[in-house]
Amino acid sequence: MPDNRWLFYAVLAAVSAAGVSIFAKIGMKGIDSTLATTIRAGVMLAFLAVICTAEKLWDKLPTVRGWAIVMIALSGLAGATSWLFGFKALAVGGRVTQVAPIDKLSVPLAAVLAFFLLRERPTLVNWAGILLIAYGAYLTALPPRSPLLPAASDHVEPSASPVQKQK
Fold first, then answer.
1. pTM of the model
2. pLDDT (tens digit, 9 = 90+) per residue, 120-158?
């Protein structure tokens, strides 16, 4: 029987990640985005230290060495730069409904990198989903005015009714 716990944890990761941009956008009012990212990282460090302590993982720390340390460090740098740029995008006026989906372009980028670097081979259906994610990110980046709907500035007030004119 296949182990599908990955799906449970992936859904929890998505639910947790959804809060990142929302909480950041609300919390960063009047705060520099880099400082906000640093505070976030400090909270994460403290939280994860508590989790490692509760799970008694600290004694395994000496077993992490060599290439694993380099790759984990690069992952940390990639995550930190992602947070810095994501928070900056929100701070300079990006809407969560645009910034978060654009951030998810990491999905198709990761799939392409996994194809070449890790030799992962998604199926055609998987590639279709990956392309839909990319197209969805493109659609969210479009200006709020939809070509299918009139913009708010195009709204014309109806002329006053004869009853209103008499007043």
1. 0.76
2. 999 999 999 999 999 999 999 888 775 666 555 555 555
**C-alpha angle with apex 47: 41 to 50, nearest 5 degrees?**
140
Question: Which residue's entry shows tokens 């990142």?
Answer: 20
Give the pLDDT confidence of 59-91 residue by residue, as tens digits.
999 999 999 999 999 999 999 999 999 999 999
Q: How far is CA 112 from CA 6, 55, 120, 122, 156, in A?
A: 21, 35, 9, 10, 48
Q: How far apart are CA 133 and CA 94, in angstroms?
A: 19
Query: So where are the chain's domains?
Result: 12-93, 104-143
For residues 84 and 24, give the distance between their C-alpha atoms in angstroms, rounded to a whole number: 11
